[in-house]
Specification:
Elements (H helix, E strand, L loop, with lengths): L9 H9 L4 E9 L5 E7 H18 L6 E5 L4 H13 L2 E4 L6 H11 L3 E4 L1 H9 L9 E4 L28 E6 L9 E5 H15 L6 E4 L8 H4 L2 E3 L13 H11 L3 E4 L1 H14 L8 E4 L6 H10 L4 E8 L2 E8 H6 L5 E6 L4 E5 L21 E6 L11 H7 E2 L35 E10 L4 E7 L4 E3 L2 E3 L1 H8 L8 E6 L6 E7 L5 H15 L10 E5 L14 H8 L5 E2 L5
Parallel strand pairs: 1-10, 3-4, 3-5, 4-7, 5-6, 9-10, 9-11, 11-12, 12-13, 24-25
Antiparallel strand pairs: 1-2, 7-8, 13-14, 14-15, 15-20, 16-17, 17-19, 18-19, 19-20, 21-22, 23-24, 25-26
Helix pairs in contact: 1-2, 2-3, 8-9, 9-10
């Protein structure tokens, strides 16, 4: 059934009409005399008017339907207002992580070729200083955190309610990946994909209108108007997640009765540790959505303590396809296996595990589907699966499988190792043949009960002469070492003949201490089949991680570092 107007911006107008006086957005701007966080509050009607004023400003500035607009603004009101105004105009927001590094950022800008720039003063200055990367920009619009609606010129009032009638397949936005295992890529989102994301997230997480959200990843605030949730802007610098003050986050949760929050395992481990140390519980929270990297076993365990009336959940997916599956703390206690359990596949999505292949897959007939329990490459399809990367045809060919599934090779003795939309129990019909499959770039497997298990990034697997090692099954062994905050499996040497090693985030005083720890780690490795071949250990003071979640370890960068660093090999005979 087609949607008459699939424009994602329509949801805000609908909420403004249905619940005009309900709080839509709360923006912190200091403390009261009593020490409470002081918020500027906008109702849905006021936020809708603010977006209307932005729409008028952008129209007067010369932004047209189909124009690409680079968004370089603060989190909270500027991000929501700018994005929804651009959606409403039929323009295409281009959203790039602010802290990926200047060189990568400029490359992303040049490739996406925005015609407009909506930015703070520093962003507009950068666009002039690095003019070659911004050569496509013809329109620059100033953005600030100040309210716009009350200062909107009278001549613009007729423009504020413009709304572009978008088809589900119309390009809605370009959102860049974090580039954790390669260069960042612009993912092309259609309006229908955003609609599907809202539906799947709402249903999988049982989110109800009237809830209050504290999004620790700013981009997730864009879903809230469609979900009917109030957005409380957190006191956090999105460029420096690791430096968050957990006390401020906890204060916001308790003061505003937050019911929902999305953040990385790194952030929630820090918040959880603070709660445990201070004997604090967060009774208003119904759910915490934790993603960006596997959730540590300790966080799963301790979450029951500080989430006294709620539960930790971990959605699995990627910028190119989200959500794919979801797992809860209760699920984790009832399952066991290799790697990290990422849960049951959500309705309307389909997952298959195929034998590893390097290079593009021209047709599904060229690959072999694996039996339950076998580790292979995870591929997915469904209404939230994006179709292409922007201006990167080779990357698109590597990541997407465009062909029908009628010739898919299913292992003898089973009816297919996918769970989700194809299951009779789901009551949802399988997508039509020809739907795009996305190669997640992850390795994993489906177990007999339909749980999906993540075993690591495909590019980060270690191929030795005696077999393949995957990061998650190996690293979970060494996470049990009491003094390690992070650990990473790396491979040294050419693929197929790699020597496995473990890097620990430890700052040890001297080589004697390193050798002592290496002996302890080797003893730990020998207790598990997955790690028995690992004899070499490196110690790094601070791991390189992604900017977006501060959780994804750059293992390939660590492998390059280890090539010239000092490793410590423990001889089990000593």
């Amino acid at each position: 059934m087609s949607i008459p107007n699939a424009n994602i911006a329509r949801h805000l107008a609908l909420m403004a009409a249905a619940s005009p006086a309900r709080a839509a957005l709360k923006i912190p701007h200091g403390r009261t005399r009593a020490g409470d966080i002081d918020y500027l509050t906008l109702t849905f009607a006021e936020l809708d008017a603010e977006v209307g004023a932005w729409t008028a400003r952008l129209t007067i500035a010369g932004v047209h339907p189909g124009d690409r607009a680079l968004v370089m603004v603060r989190q909270g009101l500027p991000l929501i207002a700018a994005a929804f105004a651009l959606f409403r105009l039929g323009a295409v927001p281009v959203i790039i992580d602010p802290g990926m590094g200047l060189k990568s950022f400029l490359t992303c800008v040049a490739r996406s070729r925005p015609r407009a720039l909506v930015g703070i003063p520093l962003a507009r200055l950068i666009s002039h200083v690095f003019r070659p990367s911004f050569s496509s920009v013809a329109v620059r619009i100033a953005a600030s955190s100040s309210l716009t609606a009350r200062f909107s010129p009278p001549s613009s009032s007729g423009l504020s309610h413009l709304s572009f009638a978008a088809a589900p397949t119309d390009l809605a936005a370009i959102v860049f990946t974090s580039g954790s295992t390669g260069a960042p890529k612009g993912v092309c989102y259609e309006h229908g994909m955003f609609d599907a994301q809202i539906r799947l997230i709402r249903d999988a997480c049982h989110i109800a209108p009237g809830e209050i959200d504290l999004p620790l990843l700013p981009i997730f605030a864009l879903f809230n108007p469609a979900l009917g949730m109030t957005t409380v802007v957190p006191e956090i610098d999105p460029r420096h997640h690791a430096e968050v003050d957990p006390a401020k986050i906890v204060q916001a949760i308790r003061q505003e009765n937050i019911t929902n929050s999305f953040g990385s395992p790194t952030l929630w481990r820090k918040i959880g540790d603070h709660c445990l140390q201070k004997n604090i519980t967060l009774p208003s929270l119904r759910r915490v959505l934790c993603a960006g990297a596997p959730v540590p076993a300790e966080l799963w365990r301790t979450s029951h303590t500080f989430l006294s009336r709620g539960q930790l959940h971990s959605p699995y997916g990627a910028t190119e396809a989200l959500p794919v599956a979801i797992v809860s703390a209760d699920d984790i206690t009832s399952v066991s296996g290799r790697g990290a359990c990422v849960g049951q596949v959500v309705p309307e999505m389909e997952v298959k595990i195929v034998a590893l292949i390097e290079g593009p897959i021209a047709t599904l007939a060229d690959v072999r589907e694996l039996a339950r329990g076998e580790i292979g490459e995870i591929i997915v399809r469904g209404p939230v699966v994006t179709k292409s990367y922007d201006a990167l045809p080779e990357a698109t060919a590597l990541a997407k499988i465009q062909t029908p599934s009628s010739n898919f090779q299913t292992p003898a003795g089973i009816s297919g190792s996918s769970f989700g939309v194809g299951d009779l129990a789901s009551g949802i019909s399988t997508p039509q043949n020809g739907a795009v499959w996305h190669r997640m770039g992850d390795c994993g497997y489906l177990d007999a009960e339909g749980y999906l298990w993540f075993c690591g990034r495909k590019a980060e697997r270690v191929e030795t002469a005696s077999g393949t090692l995957h990061t998650e099954p190996c690293e979970r062994v060494f996470r049990a070492y009491p003094h390690a905050s992070r650990c990473a499996l790396i491979g040294l040497g050419p693929r197929g003949q790699q020597r496995p090693a473990i890097v620990l985030e430890l700052n040890l005083p001297d080589s004697r201490a390193c050798r002592g720890v290496a002996r302890e780690l080797r003893a730990l490795a020998l207790k598990h089949e997955e790690t028995a071949s690992i004899k070499t250990f490196y110690f790094h003071p601070k791991f390189p991680v992604d900017v977006r979640h501060n959780a994804k370890i750059h293992r390939l960068t660590l492998a390059k570092w280890a090539a010239t660093a000092t490793g410590f090999e423990s001889d089990p005979k000593r």
